[in-house]
Specification:
Layout: H1 2-48, H2 54-61, E1 68-71, H3 85-98, E2 104-106, E3 114-120, E4 123-129, H4 140-179, H5 193-239, H6 247-272, E5 280-283, H7 284-297, E6 301-305, E7 311-314, H8 316-333, E8 337-344, E9 348-354, H9 376-379, H10 388-398, E10 402-407, E11 413-420, H11 427-436
Helix pairs in contact: 1-3, 1-4, 4-5, 5-6, 8-10
Domain HAMP: 162-214
InterPro entries: 2C_sensor_his_kinase (IPR050980), HAMP_dom (IPR003660), HATPase_C_sf (IPR036890), HATPase_dom (IPR003594), His_kinase_dom (IPR005467), HisK_dim/P_dom (IPR003661), HisK_dim/P_sf (IPR036097), RisS_PPD (IPR032408)
EC number: 2.7.13.3
C-alpha cells in the first residue's frame, strides 16, 4: 500500500508539473499581449501629440490604470531578468512583437512592475505596467483535488489488495495445515479468476489426498486386522508345542511372531490417526515419568534429567505414543543405555532422547522421518516397519512442534523434539486450561 501511495503521489506531482509547463505558453502570451498593447497605445498617443504637448501628455498618461511612463537613459544599469521560465518567456514574446532592441526589466529602480522600453525618434521611454499577471498564487485547489484523487485511488487499491490478500491468506493457512498432517476444509472459490482457479485446484488436490489417505488407511487396516487373527492362532499353537521338540526353535518362532505382531501394531497406529484427540493443558514431565516407569519395570536402564514442571497444550495419548516410539527406537539401536533430558528456552520446551549407538549419516537424517524408511546398514540390522519415527514426526507437527535427528559429537544419536510453550490457543485449549487451573488440581 505504501508503494502504491508513493507512486500515486509521484504521478500527481508529475501531472501538475506537466500542466504548469504547458500552461505557461498561453499565460506568457496573454501577459505579453497586455504589455504590448499598453506600449503601442502609449507610443501612438505620443506620436499623435504635438512635441510641445508630449510632456503634458506624459504627465496625464502616468498614473492612469497604474501605468507609469518615464524617460529612459540607455546608460542606466540594467539588471538581468530573474531565472524564471515564465518571465523570460513573456520577455521573449514582447521582443518578438516590438523588436529585438526592446528592453524588458522587472522591478527597475526598486519600483515594482514590468518595465518595457520604446523609442520615439531620438527619445527613449519606459512603460511600467504594475498589474501584469506574471506571478500566479499557489494552486491550493489543485492540491485538494490531487489529494482527493490519491485518497480514492488508495481506497480502490486497498479494496483490490484485500480481495487478493484474503484468498491468499486462506490458501497459505490451508497449506500449512495440510503440511502438518491435517486436512483443511474446502477453500471458498471467490475473488479474481486466477485466484478462483488456484482455490479450485487446491480443493481438488486436497480431496484427492483425502481419498488416497482413506484408501491407504482402509488397505493397511484391513491387512493388519486380517493378519493379527492367524498370527494369534499361530502363536498359541507354537506355545502349546512340547519343549522337548526344540526349545530354541520354539523360542525363536515366538519371538518372530512377536516382532510381526509389533509391526502390525505400528501399522494400526499409523493409520488410526491422532487428529481427533482433544488437547489438554498437561505437564510433559508427567508423561515422561509414566513412560520411564514402564521401561524400568522391564529392566531397561533409562536416565532422566528433566526441567521444572510446565503446562503446555498436549494430546495425551498421541504424545505418549511419540515418547514411546522415540525411547523404544533409542533402546533398539542405541546400545542399551538411553538418556532423556528436557530444558525450557524462551519460547519452547526441548526434549532430547540420547543413545550411544552408531549414529546416522547426515545426508540420511530426513529420510528416516518418512514412512517405511529404514537404514539398517547404519544402525544395525534390527526388525521394524520404518513407521516409528514417521509416527513421531506426524505427532510433533500436529503439536506445532519439530522433530529433528542429530548425531552426537561423542557418538550416538539425539532425537530432539521442540514443542512451543504458547502455540495458537484454541477454545478447546482454553477450556482445558481452566479445568486444570482449578484449585486442588495438580
Amino acid at each position: 500500500m505504501l508503494l502504491i501511495a508513493l507512486l500515486l503521489a509521484a504521478g500527481q506531482f508529475a501531472a501538475l508539473k506537466l500542466f504548469d509547463y504547458f500552461e505557461s505558453e498561453p499565460r506568457a502570451m496573454a501577459a505579453a499581449l497586455q504589455a504590448i498593447t499598453v506600449v503601442n497605445y502609449t507610443r501612438a498617443s505620443l506620436l499623435a501629440a504635438h512635441e510641445n504637448r508630449r510632456l503634458a501628455l506624459l504627465s496625464e498618461l502616468s498614473g492612469r490604470e497604474g501605468v507609469r511612463i518615464y524617460a529612459a537613459d540607455m546608460l542606466e544599469e540594467i539588471e538581468p531578468l530573474p531565472n524564471d521560465h515564465l518571465i523570460r518567456l513573456i520577455a521573449e514574446k514582447i521582443r518578438e512583437r516590438l523588436g529585438e532592441d526592446t528592453l524588458v526589466v522587472l522591478n527597475h529602480f526598486g519600483i515594482p512592475g514590468l518595465w518595457v522600453s520604446f523609442s520615439i525618434g531620438q527619445d527613449d521611454y519606459w512603460v511600467v505596467i504594475p498589474r501584469i499577471q506574471v506571478d500566479r498564487p499557489f494552486p491550493w485547489q489543485w492540491l485538494g483535488w490531487g489529494a482527493l484523487v490519491i485518497m480514492l485511488s488508495l481506497l480502490g487499491a486497498y479494496l483490490i489488495a484485500s480481495n487478493i490478500h484474503h484468498p491468499l491468506r486462506l490458501l497459505v493457512k490451508a497449506a500449512g495445515r495440510l503440511s502438518s498432517g491435517e486436512y483443511p476444509p474446502p477453500l471458498p472459490e471467490e475473488g479474481a479468476h486466477e485466484l478462483r482457479e488456484v482455490s479450485r485446484t487446491f480443493n481438488e488436490m486436497t480431496e484427492a489426498l483425502v481419498r488416497l489417505d482413506n484408501e491407504r488407511t482402509l488397505l493397511l487396516a484391513g491387512i493388519s486386522h486380517d493378519l493379527r487373527t492367524p498370527l494369534a492362532r499361530l502363536r498359541l499353537s507354537v506355545e502349546m508345542l512340547p519343549d522337548e521338540y526344540c526349545a530354541s526353535l520354539k523360542a525363536g518362532m515366538i519371538q518372530d511372531i512377536g516382532d510381526m505382531d509389533s509391526i502390525i501394531h505400528q501399522f494400526l497406529d499409523f493409520v488410526r490417526g491422532i487428529e481427533g484427540e482433544p488437547t489438554q493443558m498437561m505437564d510433559l514431565n508427567a508423561l515422561l515419568t509414566s513412560v520411564a516407569d514402564r521401561h524400568t519395570r522391564a529392566g531397561r536402564k533409562l536416565t532422566m534429567s528433566l526441567a521444572p514442571t510446565h503446562l503446555i497444550p498436549l494430546r495425551p495419548l498421541a504424545m505418549q505414543r511419540l515418547l514411546t516410539n522415540l525411547i523404544d527406537n533409542a533402546f533398539a539401536y542405541g546400545g542399551g543405555e538411553v538418556t532423556v533430558t528436557t530444558r525450557i528456552t524462551a519460547g519452547n520446551i526441548i526434549l532430547s532422547v540420547l543413545d550411544n549407538g552408531p549414529g546416522i549419516p547426515a545426508a540420511q537424517m530426513e529420510r528416516l522421518l518418512r514412512p517405511f524408511e529404514r537404514l539398517d546398514t547404519a544402525r544395525g540390522n534390527k526388525s521394524g516397519s520404518g513407521l516409528g519415527l514417521a509416527i513421531a514426526d506426524r505427532i510433533a507437527k500436529l503439536h506445532k512442534g519439530q522433530l529433528t535427528l542429530l548425531n552426537r559429537p561423542q557418538g550416538g544419536l539425539e532425537a530432539r523434539l521442540t514443542l512451543p510453550i504458547q502455540p495458537q490457543v484454541t477454545a478447546q485449549t482454553k477450556q482445558a486450561f481452566r479445568v486444570n487451573a482449578q484449585p486442588g488440581r495438580q
